[in-house]
Amino acid sequence: MRSRRVWGGTAAVVLGGLLAAGCGGGGKDSGGDGAARSGDSAAGGHPVTVTDCTGARTTFTGTPKKIVTSNASALELLLRLGAGDRVIGTGFPPGKGTLPGALDARARKVNVLGRTVIPKEKLLGSGADLYIDTFASMGGMGGGMGDAPTAEEFEAAGIKHIYLKSTACAAQGRSPVTDLSAVEADITTLGEVTGTAARARTLVAGMKEKVAAVQKAVGDTPRSERPTFFFFDYDAGTKQPSVTCNRQIANAVITLAGARNVFADCDGDHEQVGWEDVIAKNPDWIQLGVRDRGSAAANERAFDEAERWLESDPATKGLKAVKEGHLLRIGSERTTIAGVANADTVEEIARALYPGKVG
């Protein structure tokens, strides 16, 4: 039995024609890795004021010149906006090959301040004028991993500290995440802050166009008839599955693709359950959530491993999705990390679940 071959490679996109023509709408592509172009300027439209999850306001009188990102999500957004040359360091760097083409090459050049959470002293001494935080715990970097700087310490170091609402705020929210509006808002905000607003508008328009096309194709399918879907985080371990709950961006990706996340009833971003819980859900489709290994061949081997495990383990081999070969090979990062590629994943999942309806 072989799984449906749906791959998660994001194509790099040339946006020069759209931007040079002054077009505000995006095409069918939502990538891009060049410098900011027409309509963007170093001065931008400053002053710009940003609010965080708690409503706290941060005002920028000019564009930041030295930026540190907490992980790959903010780094990727800045690279796609054409502001990557201002990133002087990051934590949780993206794995080799995670980003497409030139984006990956540029990400490799960013100084890694921490393989996981950036140590407090290193962050405060980095020389940054902006730290973009993507962690879910507002009170501590990485949910308690490490000692987070206080607001006073950030101010003393001359570092403005802002959060991505699509990640840092989502886990604390009161409502399930079912669309990409927070991701689009983050892209718009970062575009305004970094003076790349035109690029941001193009990226957001491209995302909206892709999602709208999927919604038009599958939107009339009653919820009760939509296939059930399980994101199998293979790299999180197989002894006890870690599932994506309704505050994780993956829940929005799955929902927009016309599927039903079988663990949408758990509040939060992730939760550990037992295999008996997965068996009780008996999903129609399973996504093999494998993190990028750095090459197509290595990814193929990892997907093969995840598939063989499901087909051979006594607890999972009888699942409907496994028996029917409804196993999607779409990488973890573009599904669970907020970014432009979320819209591409919506399209690819929908294409597999609704053959002939989604182009």
List keywords for this structure.
359 residues; alpha/beta; Rossmann fold; 2 domains; 5-stranded parallel beta sheet; 4-stranded parallel beta sheet; 36% helix; disordered N terminus
Q: What is the CATH homologous superfamily assignment of the largest domain? A: Nitrogenase molybdenum iron protein domain
Low-confidence stretches: 1-39, 138-145
Helix content: 25-40%
Query: Widest sheet: strand order?
Result: 5-4-3-6-7
How many helices? The count is 14
Number of strands: 13
User: Distance N terminus to C terminus?
Assistant: 26 Å
Give the integer mean of the pLDDT values. Answer: 85
CATH topology of the largest domain: Rossmann fold
Number of domains: 2
Largest sheet: 5 strands, parallel
Q: Provide the CATH top-level class of the largest domain.
A: Alpha Beta
Gross morphology is globular
In percent, how much strand structure appears in the residues? 5-15%
> What is the H/E order?
HEEEHEHEHEHEHHHEEHEEHEHHEHH
Structural class: alpha/beta
Task: Provide a descriptive summary of the structure in words.
- By secondary structure, this protein is α/β, with parallel strands linked by helices.
- The protein has two domains: 190 residues, Nitrogenase molybdenum iron protein domain (Rossmann fold); 133 residues, Rossmann fold (3-Layer(aba) Sandwich).
- The chain contains 14 helices and 13 strands.
- Helix 3 links the parallel strand 4 and strand 5.
- Helix 7 packs antiparallel against helix 8 and helix 8 packs parallel to helix 14.
- The chain is globular.
- The N terminus is likely disordered.
